[in-house]
Fold:
Amino acid sequence: MNPSPEMRFEFGKNWHAFVKSNFTQERCDVAKAKILQFTGRADLQGIDFLDIGSGSGLHSLAAWQAGARRVHSFDYDPSSVAATMMLWEACGKPDNWTMERGDALDRQYMTGLGQWDFVYSWGVLHHTGSMWEAVMNAQATCRKNGTFYLALYSSDAAGSSMEFWLKKKAFYNTCSALDKERLVWWYVWEFMMGRDIGRAAEVVDRANQYRTQRGMDMFADVRDWLGGWPMEYAGDQDTVDLLEKFCGFNLKNISTGEACSEFLFERSGTPAQITDVKAMVARIKSAA
Structure:
């Protein structure tokens, strides 16, 4: 059974639970370090930061703690807005951090946000139901010489498994709560333990160390992956071609090979020479 077009995974419920049970300052420090490392910045002083699809609010908080002059967070899911607000309240309700419910597919809303120095959307726009429309709306909020940090599920990484995962996500969103929990443990058994009980300690250690990856929680991410619906994939080169050729961006950094490919763009304002993604990835790896 396929979910209806209107059916959506409760991302906000997942991230609200994450904030209540798993948030620590250490996780925020890791998230902040990830943003700064990928962008090559020491801090975000003087930067206006827009978080499109704030989820738990962790990365909005990280940007605020990194010194952003202004942070604005929005999410389609009211529970994600509530999770973000929990972190905002925990750090003293700063006046220069605002949040609200918003839709990346609402062009009028997106235009009303104005333009920002740093636009951040990690693992969000492929869940809107109209990914490329959402990407175009998001990129329009980035001012000239601004930064667009984008992460999308990669068809290059997924390969022939795309159809398998789309069917699995469809099932997750129509099955019972018990079956959902069974699917979480099926995923751990199949893809983290490789059906080898001897790797149980390895998975426990991975869960304990998971916070070092963007400050997130392993089981929250597994549920997000299994349940994420609606869902689309993007080719790495397709993403770069669109933003460089038609939107006036230059690709400055990229990370591929995981479920989500990460892209760091800078808006030059004029069409750029198209970057060969595979060649750039090879150069980055050789320089590491």
Observations:
- The radius of gyration is 19 Å.
- Confidence is low (pLDDT under 50) at residues 1-5.
- The beta strands are 48-52, 70-75, 97-101, 116-122, 142-153, 249-255, 260-267.
